[in-house]
Design brief:
Blueprint lengths: L1 H36 L3 E3 L9 E3 H18 L1
Antiparallel strand pairs: 1-2
Helix pairs in contact: 1-2
Length: 74
């Protein structure tokens, strides 16, 4: 019983000490890059629809939102 417990404790520590800070840094980096190149317009990716132009700020903001959502779940 001590091996499964040790694995769970190690995983919890790694999430708290390594993964969460790394994801916070990633979200901040995406936010900074969004402000830097956010005005640039690119072709949006769609499936079976006409592509709509989007800005890099919209694209990077979506990625940042996914990272922050993952942080909340952790």
């Amino acid at each position: 019983d001590c091996i499964p417990t040790a694995i769970h404790v190690a995983a919890a520590l790694l999430v708290a000490e390594s993964l969460v800070p790394a994801l916070r840094h990633l979200a901040a980096a995406l936010d900074a890059k969004s402000r830097e190149v956010g005005h640039v317009v690119k072709t949006g990716r769609t499936h079976l629809m006409d592509a709509m132009p989007v800005t890099f700020a919209q694209e990077l903001g979506g990625w940042r939102a996914q990272v922050e959502s993952g942080l909340e779940r952790l």
